[in-house]
């Protein structure tokens, strides 16, 4: 018997999001994604919140096993340190819940290779041109199936928990559109069993690199001074912000195109501003300040905004009493139960 997806959809929202374990999160990850995960814990008391450290996705870029193990623990410690509460939210390693891989296989049987080949991430990761196709020689020789089908696994992450809302940065919108496409394809073939998720885009700007303010702050940039890690000490924060690239124009104005360095600092200040002023408001308020004075205000604001995170993070990693492992297993157990409900429906629908 087929039930309509709408009758299966829980009326409270189900929120799902994921982060790759690829190093300690930086200020961009924090304000662009993670801070919102914490915020939802209070803002949406009735929503089911599920957050995953996506280690299956991480091996699309091959890495030494010991490094992956360390990055996973660091990511878990970072999420707890910023305030994710394992009782309130389900927090788990993706590879601990095999339903994610199982649903991925099933989705891949109705997913279009043509659609996947038009997506941008595999081309960016292989430094190929935007108009490259899988038939091009260089692409065909370097592209692995896992990197190509990365979006199918991401769709499975979301759909296996019947997520209704997915908070992600702008760069992930294409993957969310593809997840909805997977729902359409599956439901067309097998009946209306999967729920189509909506994207929630955080209201904040992208945080730009401190050393090259025309590109976004990223984990992979060579210059360590280009990013502030959420575990940086006040000294490190001060030093990185004081050496941020600005310009030699006097006074403070908010002109992202012509003064990207100053604009980035104003954006960061606005993110942590108690009065919730916009970057343009702040530029007016501090019009006659020097870049040095602006940098010192930004340092103070960031130090205050990240206060306590570093200490909690170090304690979680240094006290090796099995706490992180217990939190991970507790979350995995909850995630397995959540995924099993969907897999029962899906398996029956497919004919297993
Ligand atoms: P990534 O580090 O690229 O795996 O990104 C993890 C999450 O952080 C995604 O939702 C991104 O959109 C978000 N994010 C990454 N870098 C930035 C940035 N510089 N500014 C704002 N959000 C970011
Ligand atoms: N691809 C996402 C990123 O790189 C991480 C991710 C994996 C994710 N699965 C997800 C995000 C499901 C949201 C929902 O940031």
Query: What are the low-pLDDT stretches, counting only 5+ consecutive residues below 50?
Result: 1-10
* Helix vs. strand class: mainly alpha
Q: For the report, how would you describe the main beta sheet?
A: 3 strands, parallel
- Quickly count the helices: 17
Radius of gyration: 22 Å
Task: Give every kind of bound small molecule, once each.
Answer: adenosine monophosphate, tryptophan
Q: What is the molecular shape?
A: globular
Sketch the topology as an H/E string, one letter per element: HEHEHHEHHHHHHEHEHHHHHH
Give the tally of β-strands: 5
First and last CA, distance: 15 Å
Average pLDDT rating? 94
Question: Into which percentage range does the β-strand content fall?
Answer: 5-15%
Helix content, binned percent: 40-55%
Q: Strand sequence of the main sheet, in spatial order?
A: 1-2-3
GO biological process, one term: mitochondrial tryptophanyl-tRNA aminoacylation
Enzyme class: ligase
GO molecular function, one term: ATP binding
EC number: 6.1.1.2
What would the keywords be for this entry?
globular, mainly alpha, binds adenosine monophosphate, tryptophan-tRNA ligase activity, 3-stranded parallel β-sheet, binds tryptophan, about 350 residues, two-stranded parallel sheet
Topology:
Blueprint: H1 5-8, E1 14-19, H2 27-43, E2 48-53, H3 55-58, H4 65-82, E3 89-93, H5 99-108, H6 113-118, H7 121-125, H8 137-142, H9 145-148, H10 150-159, E4 165-167, H11 173-190, E5 198-200, H12 234-242, H13 260-271, H14 279-285, H15 291-305, H16 309-318, H17 323-350
The structure holds adenosine monophosphate and tryptophan.
